[in-house]
Specification:
With 284 residues, the protein is α/β, with parallel strands linked by helices. The protein is 25% helix and 21% strand. A 7-stranded mixed sheet has the order 4-3-2-5-6-10-9, sandwiched between helices. The protein has a 3-stranded antiparallel sheet with strand order 1-7-8. Strand 3 (103-108), helix 4 (111-124) and strand 4 form a beta-alpha-beta unit. Helix 1 (30-49) packs parallel to helix 4 and helix 5 (161-171) packs across helix 6. It is globular.
């Protein structure tokens, strides 16, 4: 779930290299994106989790609309399955999976986010293996998992998401499921703002240049990527996945929670989350 601190679409305030920090749109390398994400999520972890109680200590919640895997069952049967949660953050999803009988592993790039996962394990007594690694270089053998999943982790933050799709395919067994939630691509058009400002279309849906915040040296400090719906489908198909559903959870009637850029005002009008339900095209 991306961050209200980012006013995607606001005017770019300075060009990198002028000695000022600012915001721009420009291509970044995988190394730049990894460096920015790791540092960003390390320092932002406490702020991100403030007010995020709805995520639950032992729960897999697909997005701010509050759709829960316990109700949606997008992963299929999980008891006995080997499941990897990518970009797990506090790893409430991995703990829910473990409690449901899965052999779940949580993986994240950020030690700051994984500290919340350790605290969650201590609070709940539900422990899962936690791995600090980059989703583009998963430290697992081919076919190690039956299911890979994430809610808003890793996918929007890597420069080469087509490579990420291939890496997920590699660690899945034939026929294995890859189910992931990202911010709905339609939201790219709007400012990240929970108020009326966040209802005004200010940016092209077709502009794939990443949103980049940078410091006074021009080094990216936050990078968020955009793919259109069609881009995502093409990346999935190229990596050997079959798309079986695209779930767009609706904002529930009566849900008044505002968290970061997410609000009932926007949720009633705009899609917020896109969940891609896929599996490897080959079977065992
Ligand atoms: C928006 S948070 C989502 C966390 C959690 N899934 C949730 O629902 O709260 C994004 C997470 O992706 C992680 N992440 C970003 N880039 C990553 C990468 N290249 N590899 C692994 N994790 C990454 C971040 O560290 C962060 O924990």
């Amino acid at each position: 779930m991306s961050n209200a601190a980012h006013d995607r679409g606001d005017p770019e305030v300075a060009e990198p290299g002028t000695g000022e920090s600012g915001v721009t749109r420009r291509p970044v390398t995988d190394a730049e994106a990894r460096h920015a994400s790791r540092h960003w999520w390390d320092t932002d972890a406490d702020r991100y989790h403030a007010g995020a109680e709805f995520l639950g200590d032992v729960d897999l919640v697909w997005g701010p609309e509050g759709l829960r895997e316990a109700d949606a069952r997008l992963l299929g049967p999980v008891a006995g399955a080997r499941v990897l949660e990518l970009g797990c953050g506090a790893a409430g999803g991995a703990r829910w999976l473990a409690r449901a009988g899965a052999y779940a592993v949580g993986l994240d790039l950020s030690g700051g986010m994984l500290r919340h996962a350790v605290a969650g394990a201590e609070r709940t007594g539900v422990h899962v293996p936690l791995v600090q690694a980059d989703a583009l270089a998963l430290p697992f053998r081919d076919g190690a998992f039956d299911i890979v999943t994430t809610a808003f982790g890793a996918v929007p933050f890597v420069a080469d998401s087509a490579a990420l799709m291939r890496e997920v395919a590699r660690v899945l067994r034939p026929g294995g499921r890859w189910v992931f939630a990202v911010g709905h691509p339609f939201r790219w058009v709007f400012l990240d703002d929970p108020t009326e400002r966040g209802l005004i279309a200010v940016h092209s849906y077709f502009d794939r240049r990443p949103y980049v915040e940078y410091d006074a040296t021009g080094t990216p400090t936050y990078v968020e990527q955009h793919r259109t719906l069609g881009d995502r489908v093409r990346e999935l198909v190229a990596a050997g996945f079959v798309l079986t559903d695209l779930v767009e959870p609706e904002w529930p009637e009566g849900q008044e929670r505002v968290w970061q850029q997410w609000s009932p005002l926007r949720g009633r009008l705009l899609p917020g989350t896109a969940i891609f339900v896929t599996h490897r095209a080959d079977t065992e």
